[in-house]
Amino acid sequence: MGDEAIREQVAACSRIMTMKALIGLYGHLSAYDPQTGRIYLTPGAGSDRANVRAEDIWVLSKTGEVLEGSGRIAAEWPIHTAIHSTRADALAVAHVHAPFTTVFAIAEREFRPVTLTGAVLLGDGVPLFNELGLVVAPEQGQRLAAAIGSHRALLMRGHGGVIAGGSLEEVLHAALALEDNCLKAWQAAALGPVRWFSDEECQAVNQSKRPPSFGGVAWEYYSRVESSWDRQPTTTDNPLG
Ligand SMILES: [Zn+2]
Hints:
Layout (H helix, E strand, L loop, with lengths): L2 H17 L8 E6 L4 E4 L16 E3 L5 E3 L8 H10 L5 E5 L2 H6 L11 H7 L5 E2 L8 H11 L4 E4 L3 E6 L2 H24 L7 H9 L6 H14 L14
Parallel strand pairs: 6-7
Antiparallel strand pairs: 1-2, 1-5, 2-3, 3-4, 5-8, 7-8
Bound molecules: zinc ion.
């Protein structure tokens, strides 16, 4: 994929995540091109997330050197440089302050999946990064990268979450699944004990047959929805996301 195509995809993912209230005032995402070593990162806080375009995307080196971009950089860029530097499989990374993901990062409760999609995408566990404060220094990013390890997602205490994957499609799907599972777990807990998926159940679900389009279906669907979205922040529900 060339420079322009990556920029387009990163911008599209930003718009979809804004529409779905995964990001808003805060939150950002990136894609890494292993051919060039360039990290493509969405703009920082205060930018218009609902209207991000290819030309708005920043380009960083893996050591955090700004190669292209203007305005306000995403303050927590070390999250992206650290994970892209330490995980060859993580070609896409998102940092979200999504409401229910953040609630789960506040509650004293280990994350377990509660839906089939959650079991597939998050069944190997979602660790908690207990360190407080914004991740604005490379050494903080390294500690966060160590905490997420090979997992697809990480909760950040009193803050939000990080999702890493092999593509932006995968990261979008997993970010939606994380937010959905956190919301549904909370809702189900109001009714009584929650039927969390065990490790064995997650493995069983992962071995069962699923459609080949599983990874891309959320991207295709929400790309269509986003193309006709009214782009008003009031149609999302993420006050500080
Ligand atoms: Zn943050």
